[in-house]
Design goal:
heterodimer; A: Alpha-Beta Plaits; 9 strands; disordered N terminus; B: Formate dehydrogenase/DMSO reductase fold; two-stranded antiparallel sheet; 13 helices
Chain lengths: 250, 398
């Protein structure tokens, strides 16, 4: 090819234009299709800021070897494991601790703490992680892009990424490959007026009653009375996230 | 100074050019195939898990994105800070920056759980999220550097070169500040949650970007049978030495602060002493290969004008930089979060209190390598189609 003048030729300009147009089309096209399909947003006003749902968990009542809460959560939300613990979803887990100084043993379930100032919501680029007016922290599975930044940010390791395609899902919790999810505080029950989470129900059924769910904003609720009467702590209270889940005897 | 002529970079042998491009194309195809495999099956086929949520693709992506903004420095020195020896290198600096960013972003996007929802990331913004800001900073970088290149290549708009150069310089500082802040803003994990992350990433970008620039510049001039003068290369080499030293200084400040804070002794012990592969990557990868070796090659009188030493130092900086980001991204996640200070985790249903294991898989590596291939392919095609490289880079008075 011979050496050309200093001025860019039309072919070159067309090349630039064509490249930019192609890159733009490739970026936007899948999304346009997605939006056309997903444009049936039927969310209605529901949650009220007059409530703040939360839990208090008594570590002394959490029985060694018991996993009733975990199993109940898995059943309620169809969290079927695939025998791959590192990638299987875990919305609630039990943890057994030993005090390094005193040797005291405690046991407790850990799940999303439904913070007032949730780091997962702060970092989510698309607002898919959000907090309802009633304090329940959720993931919008329509706008979660699966970047997993919320999992990096959550101080409680409460979130799971869906690592594979799912089948046999529960209507209580629609889930999908490539999105992040966590404890919903059984929001489907709350919205139906059932004031008991699956984990609490299972714990009571097994005779331990370590978990108490209720409205933190209602001064007369059992949970408010218990929290007023007894000392309780937040996990990583130093972060000042004002968690909706509190622990006694930890 | 004599007038500078720019000319498309033609390789002496067309077979070498097209086969080189075909090789890069093959890497890209393998990487895209890997991305499809990972998306189709879900991330369980990778080494990533609910404990290590960001794996090898993120290491490649962050490495390339950080290097991209650093690659633009040469142009900035030329047009913003008035370095005449750097000015002829400005066009290539812009092209390399765009290429590296495109490669990094491709890897980042294809590792998303839902890459098909890219449009959501570009239309829904949570302005408290540094990730959302980065979406704007990354896409804006393409536009600003594109205009910057235009002012460098078209004489009719060259009067805007300086203001656009300033804008590009500030934008690139903002971009790397944003990338570092991805980690700086994470309160949960002991390895992160530190303001120094932002300036440390800026200085890392200076170092990696310049290393990428030097090694590809030398390669391109060998490729096109053109001349580079010793003076210019020595300048670039000395600048690289300063940047490598600066990264070391920031690493020292970060670690000394953590060593002072009792709460952070665990993570320091993990990285510096008993973290297994991460400790090795830190000492052998980042410190020995990435810092000590290049500083020796750059400042030893024995290699004063050795091009081999300059190239080797640049490659060592890149290898060390890759390990540094690996330790930051993967090591920082592998070290367990301390949910219960003063307590030891005896049992957990979700890997609390234990070091998370991570073994990268082939598809993850292939996707990452494809990012580098995209960057190099864009540079190769760009340099062939546009007048990016000066006909000669011989020293001004030679």
């Amino acid at each position: 090819m011979s050496k050309k003048g200093d001025q860019p030729s039309m072919e070159r300009r067309q090349f630039i234009g064509g490249t930019i147009a192609a890159a733009g089309a490739l970026t936007i096209a899948p999304g346009v299709i997605l939006h056309a399909v997903a444009d049936t947003d039927q969310r209605t006003e529901g949650a009220s800021s007059e409530h703040r749902w939360g839990m208090v968990i008594d570590a002394n009542k959490c029985a060694d070897g018991c996993t009733a809460c975990v199993e109940a959560c898995n059943t309620e939300h169809s969290l079927t494991g695939l025998g791959r613990p590192e990638t299987d979803a875990a919305w609630i887990r039990t943890v057994k601790l030993k005090d390094k100084q005193t040797g005291n043993i405690s046991r407790l379930p850990v799940m999303c703490q439904h913070c007032e100032h949730p780091p997962c919501v702060d970092v989510c680029p698309t607002n898919a992680s959000f907090k309802r007016a009633d304090g329940v922290v959720l993931v919008d599975r329509h706008t979660c892009i699966g970047c997993r930044y919320c999992m990096m940010a959550c101080p409680y390791k409460a979130r799971s990424f869906i690592h594979e395609a799912l089948s046999d899902q529960s209507v209580n919790a629609p889930r999908g490959k490539g999105c992040v999810e966590s404890c919903t505080l059984c929001v489907h029950r709350i919205d139906e007026g059932v004031m008991q989470t699956a984990c609490q129900e299972a714990c009571e059924k097994d005779g331990h009653a370590a978990i108490l769910f209720g409205d933190l904003k209602d001064p007369n609720s059992e949970i408010s009375q218990v929290l007023k009467k007894y000392n309780s702590v937040q996990i990583r209270g130093d972060l000042e996230l004002n968690t909706g889940v509190r622990y006694r005897n930890l | 100074m004599s007038k500078m002529y720019y000319r498309e970079l033609y390789c002496g042998s067309p077979i070498r050019f097209w086969s080189g491009l075909a090789l890069l194309g093959a890497f890209i195809v393998i990487g895209l195939g890997s991305a499809y495999y990972m998306e189709h099956n879900g991330h369980w086929v990778t080494g990533m898990s609910n404990q290590i949520v960001w794996g090898l693709p993120h290491v490649f992506a962050i490495f390339l994105i950080v290097a991209a903004s650093g690659a633009l420095n040469v142009a900035s020195i030329g047009s913003v800070f008035g370095g005449p020896l750097y000015k002829p290198l400005g066009r290539y600096s812009g092209l390399l920056a765009i290429g590296l960013l495109a490669g990094g972003l491709m890897v980042l996007v294809l590792d998303l759980g839902r890459p098909d929802r890219l449009i959501v990331a570009m239309t829904e913004y949570n302005f408290k999220s540094i990730f959302a800001w980065n979406v704007i900073l990354y896409s804006g970088f393409f536009a600003i550097v594109g205009v910057y290149l235009w002012t460098m290549m078209d004489r009719s708009v060259s009067k805007f070169n300086r203001p656009v150069g300033f804008a590009a310089f500030f934008w690139r500082i903002a971009l790397t500040t944003g990338t570092g802040s991805i980690f700086g803003f994470l309160v949960a994990r002991e390895a992160y949650d530190a303001a120094i992350m932002a300036p440390m990433f800026v200085i890392m970008s200076f170092s990696y970007g310049l290393a990428f620039f030097i090694i590809t510049l030398i390669t391109a001039y060998i490729w096109g049978d053109r001349e580079i003068g010793d003076l210019r290369l020595t300048r670039l080499k000395n600048l690289l030495g300063v940047f490598v030293g600066a990264v070391l200084y920031f690493t020292l400040a970060y670690n000394i602060t953590n060593l002072y804070i009792t709460q952070h002794h665990g993570i320091e012990r993990f990285v510096l002493l008993d973290g297994g592969i991460y400790t090795q990557m830190f000492w052998i990868g980042q410190i020995l290969i990435g810092s000590v070796l290049p500083l020796f090659l750059i400042y030893s009188p024995a290699f004063e004008k050795s091009r081999w030493a300059i190239a080797a130092a640049s490659i060592a900086v890149l290898i060390g930089g890759f390990f540094q980001i690996y330790v930051i991204v993967i090591g920082g996640q592998a070290y367990p979060m301390n949910l219960f200070p003063g307590k030891e985790v005896v049992e957990s249903g979700f890997f609390d209190g234990v070091v998370a294991s991570y073994t990268p898989t082939f598809p993850e590596a292939a996707l990452g390598v494809a990012g580098i291939a995209v960057a190099l392919a864009m540079v190769a095609v760009g340099a062939r189609v546009f007048k990016v490289f000066p006909e000669t880079l011989e020293d001004p008075n030679s």
